[in-house]
Amino acid sequence: MSTGDEGHGAGRLARREQDILALERRGFPGPGLKERAIREELGLAPVRYYQLLNALLDDPRALAHDPVTVNRLRRIRETRRTER
User: Going residue by residue through the chain (84 aa), what tens digit of pLDDT does each one get?
Assistant: First the structure.
């Protein structure tokens, strides 16, 4: 039976997921630089990147992989939701 986790263990993130979290750990000094890195380094459109990132924030594997980054991004997301 397939679980959709081919290529990585059940408790581990796929390479692309790890790369997304690694990109979020980096600081970007100017506008547009993050979007450029998303396109050039990950080969993703920024809209798709943010969709994947948002899903990752709810994934317990992401929290286990990088708790500092995931918790920081969860706080930011929650702040933005309450401001709306």
Answer: 333 444 444 689 999 999 999 999 998 988 899 999 999 999 999 999 999 999 999 999 999 999 999 999 999 999 999 987
Dihedral angle sign, alpha carbons of residues 72, 32, 59, 63: negative
CA–CA distance, 12 with 35 (Å, rounded to integer)? 26
Q: What CA–CA distance (Å, rounded) separates 4 from 57?
A: 19
Residues, the chain: 84
For 13, list phi and psi in degrees, rounded to 5.
Answer: -80, 150
pTM across the whole model? 0.82
